[in-house]
């Protein structure tokens, strides 16, 4: 079984050493104990686990949700239903965020169109909209 130092795991997984230490503190990957040397040696599976974590984050999962996915992936009795439910919840949140972003984009687009970009700051529609507590993006 091949063992890796933290630097080699980081390079192979495409992350920094501090990212691995952070994942260890969060309990997402196990912190190996030093064997024979003062260096901690990681199993090859640590690289795949870190890649899993990064890919899940790229899909928008929080580290807590990643921990749930990891736990589910390690349970022989777990079903696809549990994973699907977690992913469906995340998808719903992403769709809500997209809707919020569309509202923000429309509001900001109108403000940019309304501002000539010339003249004194007083009366600037962008500053007034941000200052006005009656304007809401969502």
Account of the 3D structure:
The mean pLDDT is 90. It is built from six helices and two strands. Strands 1-2 form a two-stranded antiparallel sheet. 61% of the residues lie in helices and 3% in strands. It has helices at 6-13, 17-25, 45-58, 63-73, 80-114, 125-131, and strands at residues 3-4, 42-43. With 138 residues, the protein is an all-alpha fold. It is elongated.
What is the chain-wise order of helices and strands?
A: EHHEHHHH
Strand content: under 5%
DSSP E strands, number: 2
What is the strand arrangement across the widest sheet?
Answer: 1-2
Distance, first to last CA: 54 Å
Helix content: 55-70%
User: What class do helices, strands and sheet pairing give?
Assistant: mainly alpha
The biggest beta sheet is recorded as:
2 strands, antiparallel
Low-confidence parts lasting 5 or more residues at pLDDT below 50? none
Q: Mean of the pLDDT scores?
A: 90
Which value, in Å, is the CA radius of gyration? 23 Å
Tell the overall outline.
elongated
Count of individual helical segments = 6
Provide keyphrases for this structure:
138 residues, mainly alpha
Q: Strands, helices and their partners?
A:
Elements: E1 3-4, H1 6-13, H2 17-25, E2 42-43, H3 45-58, H4 63-73, H5 80-114, H6 125-131
Structure in a nutshell:
This protein is mainly alpha-helical. The chain has helices at residues 6-13, 17-25, 45-58, 63-73, 80-114, 125-131; strands spanning 3-4, 42-43.
């Amino acid at each position: 079984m091949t063992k890796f130092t933290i630097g080699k795991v980081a390079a192979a997984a495409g992350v920094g050493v501090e990212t691995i230490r952070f994942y260890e503190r969060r309990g997402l990957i196990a912190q190996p104990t030093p064997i024979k040397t003062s260096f901690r040696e990681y199993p090859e599976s640590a690289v795949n686990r870190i890649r899993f974590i990064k890919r899940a984050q790229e899909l928008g999962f929080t580290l807590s949700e990643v921990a749930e996915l990891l736990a589910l992936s390690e349970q022989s009795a777990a079903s696809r239903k549990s994973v699907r439910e977690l992913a469906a919840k995340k998808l719903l949140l992403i769709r809500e965020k997209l809707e919020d972003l569309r509202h923000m984009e429309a509001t900001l687009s109108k403000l940019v169109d309304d501002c000539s970009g010339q003249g004194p700051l007083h009366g600037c529609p962008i500053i007034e909209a941000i200052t006005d507590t009656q304007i809401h993006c969502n």
